[in-house]
Amino acid sequence: MRTPRTSLVAAALLAACGAPAGGAPSASAVAGGAPSASAVAGGTSSPSAPPPPAPQAAEAPASAAAASPAPAPCGALGCLAFDTPGQAFAHVLQGGPRVLAVGEAHAQQGSEGVPSATRRFTELFLPSLAGRASDLIVELWAVDPRCKREQVARVDQEQKAVTQGQAAGNQGEFLALGTEAKRLGIRPHLLQPSCEEYDAIVRAGPDAVTAMLEMIARLTAARAKALLGREDAAGKMVIAYGGALHNDVAPRPGRERWSFGPELSATTGGKYVELDLIVRELIKDSESWRALPWYPHFDREAHPDKAVLFSAAPGSYVLIFPRSP
């Protein structure tokens, strides 16, 4: 992934899944937000904590799904329990989407010993998309170096309330995802807000977080549509990876402007898949988690060594990873 130049460059993931009903995400929201906007100049710093054990390697590409054991029904919302995450992922892709919109619950402080959703996607799922996906849009911002330093600093300050509880390594793992995609022949892309968009966030005052959420959805949709229209991407998939809020194909009332799901589903004629990735150990008994439609149907004690897949509607999935070793 090409890293923008100068110390003005910042990569910031801002949108999170599971904000409390009726408002923008708070610092306690599920997935929180993303790494705060720290400078990225020629690389990223390593997390201070040692890396967690690597997740189990992907057992087979999606093309081998037919030979896999049949999943076991596990309850409401089309619940299926698969022996491995790779089998669940292959099931999600059976319809051949043109856009795969992946959302995650971001790793939080104190969870550094558990492999994150980003790392699991990078190591378990991304290799099976080589040759099938043309591009990957990562929900990180590349700041235009022409923007005023004061603009960038103000927006950075607004982000901190959302991102302060996140694991220190989140941003580095997002960048690693882009780097691995490039190695596999999948072109990575950052979001590139204009200076005018930074101005709009600053002018939004107390509604700055909402303005950021709307901007992320708008920029992601525009980039995805441009990529889908390229001749050399014909027939291939575009992946969007970020927080599990923007990918909603049926956003909750009041959040419609935060999601690119309906627009990209219409653009692709319904060839759109929304996939939320959940690390089992991160699920908490909190208001934000309880607001998610699958939460009442998830039994933490049932199928702990299985990948549990919910599907509340066609093309909409939640994949809960097995417990970590």
Short synopsis of the structure:
The protein is of the alpha/beta class and 325 residues long. It has helices at 85-92, 117-125, 149-163, 170-183, 195-203, 208-228, 261-267, 287-290, and strands at 10-11, 38-39, 72-75, 79-82, 99-104, 133-141, 187-191, 237-243, 272-278, 307-313, 316-320. The model is unreliable at 1-50 and 57-66 (pLDDT under 50).
Total beta strands: 11
Instruction: Give the distance, in angstroms, between the N- and C-terminal Cα atoms.
Output: 31 Å
| Biggest beta sheet attributes | 9 strands, mixed
Uncertain segments are 1-50, 57-66
Rg calculated over all Cα atoms? 18 Å
Average predicted confidence as pLDDT: 81
Supply the helix-strand structural class.
Answer: alpha/beta
How do the SSEs run, as a string of H and E? EEEEHEHEHHEHHEHEHEE
Strand content: 15-25%
Number of helices: 8
* Envelope shape: globular
Strand order of the largest sheet: 3-4-10-11-9-5-8-6-7
Assembly type of the chains comes to single chain
Which percent bin holds the helix content?
A: 25-40%
